[in-house]
Amino acid sequence: MIAFLSGVVREVREHSAIVLTGGVGYEVLCPASTLAKLKVGDVAELHTRLVVREDAWTLFGFSETDSLKLFELLTSVTGVGPKLGLALLSAMPVSALAQGLLSGDSKLLSSVSGVGKKTAERLVLELQNKVPEHLAAPTVGGKRQRVISTAGQDAVEALLALGFRDAQVRSVVSELLASDSEQSADQLIRKSLGRLR
């Protein structure tokens, strides 16, 4: 089992990166949040999970242990393979995804491409009581913050009423709250509209 990989980033692709370590280049499939942190020539440190199938050995990498933990929980659900788990983690921050699972928000999950209504409901049913609550708080400077505020929830509801996609809205509002948790709903809506349009 390959649990951790540290090496020089040789290439960053759409869904993966090539990391050179010990003279071997490993292709590592990563969520968008991890790929955004990788730069060619830099040293990458990734928490990994090796998935072995009859036809392929695939290495998945994550910049944070929380992402890996959620990936493992997602892929423990029947019908959710590693690529779908990666798609969910790429669609929104760990905090928004964990919050969606904890609150039973199957609509949020089904807004992700490739996740149908039944799969979303199964994810909620099987994981609602398994997701650690601390994962639902956004991260600032490597530290988890409190779960989305009342103003944040009001902003999310207002933006959804305007027709924006659930996953996008929650991701943007979570990021804004992570930078300043004291913002009002009006401020969050105004700033979110600038990012969502």
TrEMBL record:
Keyword S-adenosyl-L-methionine: no
This protein's record includes keyword Lipid biosynthesis: no
Protein localization: Cytoplasm
InterPro entries (alphabetical): DNA_helicase_Holl-junc_RuvA_I, Hlx-hairpin-Hlx_DNA-bd_motif, NA-bd_OB-fold, RuvA, RuvA_2-like, RuvA_C, RuvA_C_sf
GO annotation terms (biological process): DNA recombination; DNA repair
One Gene Ontology CC term in the entry: cytoplasm
Domain notes: Has three domains with a flexible linker between the domains II and III and assumes an 'L' shape. Domain III is highly mobile and contacts RuvB.
Name of this chain's protein: Holliday junction branch migration complex subunit RuvA
